[in-house]
Specification:
The two termini are about 45 Å apart. It is elongated and about 100 Å long. It has a 5-stranded antiparallel β-sheet, with helices on both faces. The longest helix is centred in the C-terminal third of the chain and has 63 residues. With about 425 residues, it is of the alpha+beta class. It contains 12 helices and 5 strands. α3 packs across α5, α4 runs antiparallel to α5 and α8 runs antiparallel to α9. β4 and β5 form a beta hairpin.
């Protein structure tokens, strides 16, 4: 039985500032790599070039992970994944790897995994691998279990997990090295938090409207008791109910947009984080010695082309986030105007009620409940508006930074 990943001894020569890459053909045969990869793996160039990438696979890794990897990259989609590899000497080294299709094969860029999430991932992998071995599970059968276990860690799906995991590893590395966090990641992480706040508050608003949806009906019924069907309070009550229904429809559209905005923000964050890693690898490679100049230059050119691709993808994703932010701002202003309209309508009801000579105690109770609900509604809308302002500020700041960087012809991922 192979050694578990949790118990595997990690090599001491792999440091947090190490980043490396490898380039393969479509079959996964290594075509190129950098010196850090060669040094950490312990293999010579003659053993690495032309070998399948499973040369460094740790035997304790679950096969489901590789099924996930190949299914995604062969479909043209990049994948971020934790990998525990094994050196020639039998020691382990744990990375977070982003593998992406590129030209006639694939490029994988990796950094050392040092976040507090690593032990949990290793235990999860150990469990899946044990089930594969004990139950004779094929990768297609164990992959759903892997994805379910990852979702159980608090993620909506694997895309959400890999975006958060890559950010977590880059932040952990930068904190360890006492470096500033990448500006784009700081902004996109804050935007993600604000969008999640909007969705959460939107659900609270929806619940409040469900709880209070009978109040306008009760107000209208009390008005009919006092003055008949067509009295002024009855007309005001009917208008109030219509405005409430309009607000409810707008809220549902707003909530739907917020819940569906989290995914695009995470995608933008993953793309930005991938570009951070690509640029780090290119910078590391540019300072390496010991390779033939023509080989090093070819690898640098390939990495720079990929940086350009992912920079453009990140810019497009950020533009999409900014467009959503503008939608949130526009609709939140409309919803605030509706809240003002509800408050004014209730005030008019109070004025007409004061003119009545009839007993208005029952109507008074309804109006008081309405006023309390409006206060809650206004407070929740203030939370939405604060989150929208944060999204607008950060999204447009990101776009300005990218436009300025493009004009100067410099890298767009910079320290905060």
């Amino acid at each position: 039985m192979s050694q578990t990943l949790s118990a595997a001894k990690e090599t001491a020569i792999f440091l947090p500032d190490h980043v490396f890459f490898s380039r393969t053909d479509q079959r996964g045969v290594i075509q190129s790599a950098n010196n850090i990869f060669r040094r950490i793996s312990g293999y010579g160039w003659d053993e690495i070039i032309g070998a399948p990438h499973k040369l460094v696979r740790h035997p304790g890794m679950p096969r489901a992970v590789f099924r996930l990897l190949w299914s995604r990259v062969r479909a043209g989609t990049p994948l971020g994944v934790y990998m525990v590899n094994q050196t020639k000497a039998g020691e382990a080294y744990t990375v977070f790897a982003v593998t992406m299709p590129f030209e006639d094969g694939y490029i994988s860029v990796r950094l050392k995994s040092i976040s507090d999430q690593v032990p949990r991932i290793k235990a999860l992998y150990d469990d899946i691998a044990a089930r594969e071995n004990a139950e004779g599970l094929a990768p297609d059968d164990s992959l759903p279990a892997l994805l379910t276990d990852i979702d159980a860690m608090g993620h909506a799906d694997y895309d959400a997990f890999m975006a958060d995991a890559l950010e977590r590893e880059i932040v952990a590395r930068d904190e360890h090295l006492e470096r500033l966090k990448p500006r784009d990641l700081v902004a996109l992480s804050a935007i993600q938090g604000a969008v999640e706040t909007i969705a959460d508050v939107g659900r609270k608003l929806d619940a409040l409207l469900v709880q209070t949806n009978q109040i306008p009906d009760n107000m209208r019924l009390q008005a009919m008791r006092l003055e008949g069907r067509d009295g002024p309070i009855g007309v005001i009550s009917a208008n109030y109910q219509t405005m409430t229904e309009t607000f409810t429809r707008s809220l549902k559209d707003f909530l739907h947009a917020a819940e569906h905005a989290v995914g695009p923000v995470r995608e933008a964050k993953f793309l930005a984080a991938t570009n951070v890693l690509l640029q780090d690898v290119a910078h590391s490679l540019s300072g390496e010695t010991g390779q033939r100049p023509e080989k090093k230059n070819a690898d640098l050119q390939a990495l720079n082309r990929l940086v350009a691709v992912y920079d453009a993808k990140t810019t497009q994703a950020v533009k999409s986030v900014a467009q959503r932010a503008e939608y949130f701002e526009r609709v939140s202003k409309d919803m605030r105007r509706m809240v003002f309209g509800l408050e004014m309508t209730r005030t008019m009801c109070n004025i007409e009620r004061s003119k009545s000579s009839s007993d208005t105690d029952a109507l008074d109770g309804v109006v008081e409940r309405l006023q309390h609900a409006e206060a809650q509604l206004s407070d929740l809308m203030a939370d939405v508006e604060g989150a929208v302002r944060d999204i607008m500020y950060r999204a447009h700041g990101l776009l300005r930074g990218r436009r300025d960087a493009a004009k100067l012809g410099v890298a767009t991922i910079a320290a905060a």
